[in-house]
Specification:
two-stranded antiparallel sheet; Alpha-Beta Plaits; binds iron/sulfur cluster; Rossmann fold; alpha/beta; 28% strand; elongated
């Protein structure tokens, strides 16, 4: 079983649309498992209209709670908390869960044993069924942290399912950027497809994500989306790939059919004669032998 993560240095490059099309092509010959590792804004599920099969809480950390019966209102914990999460109000000590970082300093400092550290449910993860194969995805609750941990949860469950079901390809939709969630999505993958766009920030962000995949020793391949909107920047990307000895596998032209099929919740490759579908099919032909 091979694991391929699709990344982009920034959001809005068309990464998810391209993954849906690649998955559509791959599913013709391979048993697929899909994972959406963009837990802050998961959107592969929107495109593939999956049927939810399982839903699980994600415990991202802990939060302090005060037992009012044991608390002696000494306010030591108010002084100890560096995040200003504890206050004395209405004759009692209270914790603001949005400010609490779960560091447990108050738990260890309280002389009365009045602080309890309890699990904090920070989001949910799902197993769903799509026409292309099982999809693992998640939703981090607003304002919650530990998205890297949730990405790892999604990926490990997808990987286990792929191994147990005899799937031969795990396709991971990685989050944009190079932060903790992108690193969690990249770790353990056999290859990374980087989707770039020919803009000033697109070239810059591709350089950053290439440095990240190199650091984690994940072989990278590049494709350029909307390649024809700026030929000069597209050539800059090609030069960057040559300089770094990274194969540029394909260029996808700007094609209104991408949006048209997107709003109909169909992969663009369901319109095989469209320019974008032809380019993505050519990209898949380049990518597939590299999965061997
Ligand atoms: S340190 Fe313990 S006893 Fe003192 S105010 Fe905080 S919770 Fe109450
Ligand atoms: S666990 Fe840490 S952050 Fe949370 S209330 Fe206690 S001291 Fe403050």
């Amino acid at each position: 079983m091979k694991e391929c993560v699709v990344l982009s240095g920034k959001g809005g490059t068309g990464k998810t649309t391209i993954i849906a099309a690649l998955a559509h092509l791959a599913a013709e010959t391979r048993r697929l498992v899909l994972a959406d590792a963009d837990v802050d804004a998961s959107n592969l599920e929107l495109l593939l209209a999956p049927e939810e099969q399982e839903r699980h809480d994600f415990v991202g950390g802990q939060v302090a709670e005060i037992d009012a019966d044991l608390c002696r209102n000494c306010e030591l914990c108010v002084t100890i908390c560096r995040f200003g999460a504890i206050s004395y109000r209405d004759d009692r000590i209270t914790v603001d869960p949005l400010r609490c970082e779960g560091c447990a300093a108050c738990f260890y400092a309280c002389p009365s044993g009045a602080v309890e550290m309890v699990d904090r449910v920070s989001g949910q993860w799902f197993r769903s069924e799509t026409s292309l194969g099982p999809l693992f995805h998640a939703r981090l609750s607003p304002g919650q942290e530990n998205s890297g941990k949730l990405v790892t949860q999604v990926k490990m469950t997808a990987k286990l399912t792929a191994a147990q079901s005899g799937a031969d390809l795990l396709l991971v939709d990685g989050p944009p950027g190079i932060g903790c969630p992108a690193i969690a999505a990249t770790t353990g993958a056999q290859m990374a497809l980087l989707v770039a766009e020919p803009t000033v920030s697109g070239v810059h962000d591709l350089g950053r994500v290439l440095a990240t995949t190199r650091h984690f020793r994940v072989p990278a391949f590049v494709c350029v989306n909307k390649a024809d909107i700026n030929r000069a920047k597209c050539e800059e990307i090609a030069q960057l790939c040559r300089d770094q000895d990274v194969p540029l596998l394909g260029e996808i032209p700007f094609d209104p059919m991408m949006v048209e099929t997107l709003v109909q919740l169909r992969p663009v490759t369901s319109e095989p004669e469209s320019p974008a579908a032809k380019a993505i099919t050519a990209l898949w032909r380049e990518l597939e032998p590299r999965l061997a």
